[in-house]
Amino acid sequence: MAQFKTALVLGATGLVGKALIRQLQNDPRYKQVTCLVRRPMPLSLVAHEQKKVNWLVINFDALQEYEGYFKVDHVYCCLGTTIQKAGSQEAFRKVDFEYVHVAAQLARAQRCKSFVWISSIGANAKSSNFYLRVKGELENAIMGMSQLKNASAVRPSLLLGERHENRPLEDIAQTIAPVLGMLLMGPLKKYRPVSAIEVAHKMIKLQVFDDD
């Protein structure tokens, strides 16, 4: 008989994170989902029907202190920011590389069955683009970790969905998404803007659900 799973989500308040929580809440395979967040959640986000979703406010600069919460079947890492929002390349790297890398290390220490995080299309440790270089360096760092079971990166292009912050490039993509969908064919299909719902669904599909 299949066993119910437990999950830990980092970055649950972002575009993909919110879509992911809704899907996990409705996924009968999960019995408990814990979300690590930076600040208390507004009631509009924490729905009353989310009986199996627990929210915990933590200090991400001291993520190691919360290692016990990583003792779950699956870890989903949706952490991410922009250089503009972070304020500097150093602050961006702290969120998009350091926090995610530490999360992967904690998942390994607690022997999670699988770890899935959000990277980016074009991620390359040798890229001249700082954003893509950081994403590529993170992929290399996590995939090179020994004894980390079933680590997988999702590489979306521009994300579609309703945001509560200003991201001009993604706002433009939302507007022209139907046209891009027709123009980006064949090998270019991977560059099509993708909905947060689709990315969240892909993350769930990458997790390991067998009972070995």
Automatic annotation (TrEMBL):
Protein name: NAD(P)H-binding protein
Coiled coil (UniProt feature): none
Keywords: Membrane
Localization, UniProt: Membrane
One Pfam family hit: Epimerase
Domain NAD-dependent epimerase/dehydratase: 7-125
